[in-house]
Amino acid sequence: MDNYREMWEKLNIDLERHDQLCKAIPQMYESIFVSQKDRPKGMNYFSFVVLEIHGLRIKELEEARKNGRKVIGTFCVFVPDEIIVALDAISIGLCAGSQFWIESGERALPKNLCPLIKAFTGALIDRTCPYFMSCDLLIGETTCDGKKKAWEVINKYKPVYVMDLPQMKRKKDFNMWREEINQLIEKLEELTGNKLTVDKLKKAIDLCNRKRRALKRLYDLRKMKPSPISGLDSLLISQIAFYDDPERFIENVNKLCDELDERVKTGKKSDKKRIMITGTPMALPNWKMHDIIEKLNAEVVVEETCTGTRYFENEVCEDGETIDDLVKNLADRYLKVNCACFTPNEGRIDDILRYAKEYNVDGVIDYGLSFCHTYAIEDSSIQKALKENNIPVMRVETDYSTEDSGQIKTRIEAFLEMI
Amino acid sequence: MDNYREMWEKLNIDLERHDQLCKAIPQMYESIFVSQKDRPKGMNYFSFVVLEIHGLRIKELEEARKNGRKVIGTFCVFVPDEIIVALDAISIGLCAGSQFWIESGERALPKNLCPLIKAFTGALIDRTCPYFMSCDLLIGETTCDGKKKAWEVINKYKPVYVMDLPQMKRKKDFNMWREEINQLIEKLEELTGNKLTVDKLKKAIDLCNRKRRALKRLYDLRKMKPSPISGLDSLLISQIAFYDDPERFIENVNKLCDELDERVKTGKKSDKKRIMITGTPMALPNWKMHDIIEKLNAEVVVEETCTGTRYFENEVCEDGETIDDLVKNLADRYLKVNCACFTPNEGRIDDILRYAKEYNVDGVIDYGLSFCHTYAIEDSSIQKALKENNIPVMRVETDYSTEDSGQIKTRIEAFLEMI
Prior knowledge:
The structure is a homodimer.
Chain A lengths: L4 H6 L4 H20 L8 H9 L4 H11 L4 E4 L6 H6 L3 E4 L8 H7 L6 H12 L3 H5 L2 E5 L3 H10 L5 E4 L7 H22 L5 H25 L8 H11 L4 H21 L6 E7 L8 H7 L3 E7 L4 H4 L10 H12 L11 H13 L4 E7 L3 H16 L4 E6 L6 H14 L1
Parallel strand pairs in A: 1-2, 1-3, 3-4, 5-6, 5-7, 7-8
C-alpha cells in the first residue's frame, strides 16, 4: 500500500498509528477468512476490496472529489442512500467495528457506551480512518441516545447533519419522516450544488433496489441446506455493501450468486447447526461472533441485524410522478425497518419468527453490543416469542475485545450441544 | 400505619414485602433528616407527608377514585400536568429512588440500565408501591432509550400511554410537541369522561404556575449566604412536589418560605462550601448525594436537575382565548426545559453558568445515574464550560446502592479541600 502514503498524508492521516492498523487487518483477515475451506471463487473480489479498504476505494473517492463530487458519511440504515446517490454524491457507511479505535473513543465518550459509537468516534479523532477524512459531510440520526449525543462531540471535528428519526410508527410519524427526508434533500442540494429531479431520483431508487435485490439473492441462497456460502463470507459482503461502488458491488454479488447456484446443485449433506444472529450491527471488521460460531460445528445462515436483513429487506416502490410521491415511497420503505429504536417494535418478532422458518434455523443467538439499551430491553420479548415457538435461543452481550471470546465459545458450544 | 392494611390489600399490594419497605423508610428518614440541626419548623409538614407516603396520600387517591376521578402516573417533567389537572384527574410522579426495587427491576430489565428505570419497574411488578396500584393510567415518554423501551415491559402490567418527545428544538419540533399534547388531551378526555374547556385549562395553568412560583421562591431563598434551608430539606420538598396535593403543597411551601424569610434576616456567617448538583434526577427516597455532601462541611444550594430547577423554571404563559392558544403556550414552556435528551442542548450550559453565579456556587458536582448515556456524554462539554469559567467541577456516576458511598465521600472531601 506504499503508493497510497502520499494520499493519506494529504488527508491528514496519523500515518504512524495508521500503519499499525494497516498491519493488523490483513493478518486478522488471513486467519479468519482465508483459512476457510473451499471458499467460492467469487469471494476473490470481496477479499480484494477488504484488503484495499484504505487504498483503492479511498483513491476513487478522492478522484471523485477532485471532479467536484461530494462524499457523505453515514452511520445507519435509516439514512436514505437514494437521496445521496441522486444528487451525484457518494455514500459511505462509517460504522466501525475494530477494538483499535476504542481507546481513543473512550477519551471523548463515556467508557460504558456501545463499542460501535466509541470506535467510530475514536477513528475520527484519531485520524486513522481515511473515510472520515475524505468525507465532506457526515449524516447522523437519532436512533439511540449514544449516537444522538455523540454527534455533538463529533461535530467539533467534522460537520454533522442530524436527521431526527421518529420513535414510533403512527401515521404522523411517517409524515414527520417525509419532512426529514425533504430537509435532507435541501441540505444536500446546497452541499452538492445539484438539483434533485424525478428522473435522477428514480434512477437512484432503481440502483439501491438492485443492490437490495442482489443481497436478497445472496441471502435466499443461504436458505439452502447446506448453505453454499459461510456466514463469515456473507457478513463480509454485507459489510462491504456500505462503502463499495454500488454498480460494481451488485455485479460482483450476482456473479458470486451464479457460482453459488451451481454449488447448491452439488451440495453435500451437512450436520452443521444452522444459527440465526439477531440484534445489533456488526461493522467492519467485527467478525468476532461469526468466527467463534463457524469454528465450531455450526454455520450462521442469517443475520436479523442492520448488517443483515434490515439493510436490504423491502424495496422502495418506484411508482410516482413527482419528487413528493417518491419521497413518500422512501419514507414508507425506511420506516418498515424494525429497529429496536421504535416503540413498540413487534414487527421485529414477526421477522425473527419468519426467518427462523425460511432459513431452517436450529437456534438463535440474540447478539447485543454492550450498553445498547434498546436491543437489550427487547431481549426478553424476543426470547419469550422464540421459546413459545420451540426455537432455542441464547443471549450474548459483548464488545470488540477478545477477552471474553473463550467464555463465549464455551457458552455457544454448550448451546449447540443442547439444540 | 396499621389502619391502611385493608386499603393496601384491596390494592393488591404484596403486604409482606411492603412491610419491609415501610420499616426501612422511617429509619432512613430519621438518620438522614431528623438528625439535622435547627431544622425549620415548616419542615414538619413535609416530614409528615413523607412518613405518610404510602398511607394518607394513597387514601386520598382512593377516595378520589371512588368519586369517579382518575389517577394518572407520570415519570417525567415533560408530561404536562396542566392537562391532567384540567380534566379533573390527579397527577402522581412515579419515578422511584430506592435500592429496594432494583432486584425485581433487574428480573425484567437488563442489569446495566439506569437505576431509576429499574426501580420503578421493580416497584410495579413487585406490587410494593401503592401509587402504581392506584393509577388508572401511566403516561410514559420517549426521553431516553431506557424509558422508551421499558414502557413495553411495563405495559404488560398497567396500561401505558406514550408521548413522543421531539429530539430537537426546531420550529417543526414545537409543532410536533403541540400535536402530542393534543393527542394526550383526546386520550385523557376519553379516560376521564370530561371535556377540556378554555376555562378549566386556564385554571390548571394557574395552579401549576403557582406551584412553580412557590418552588422558585424556595430556591431563591437558597441563593442567600448562608442558605436558610439545607439541600436535603429542599430536595425533599422537590420530591414531594411530584405527588402531593398541589394546593396544599403550595400553601405549605409558602408558609415555610415565610419562616425562611425571617431566618435570612438573622442568618449567621457560614464557611460551608456551596455546591450545585447538575445532572440526572433524584427520585424519592434517593438522598444519597445530598446526605454525603451535607455531612461534610458543605451545603447543596441548587440542583440543576429534573427534581430541581428543570421542574419549576419558566411559567406557562396564561394569555390565550382558545385551547389551541393555550396548548401552544404549554408546548413553548415545556420545550424550554434543557434536558440532555435534546440534541444539541447548549441551553443547559447557559443555565448551569447562570445558576453558578446566582447561587454563589463554590463548586459543581455533575451527578449521573449509572448508564444514563445522554447526561454522561454531556459531561465533557459541561466540564469544559465550567473550567473555562474557573468553576471547579467533578463528576460522580453512581446508583442507589450504598456500596460506593465511602469512596464518593472521599472524593468529595478531596474536592471540597481543593475549592
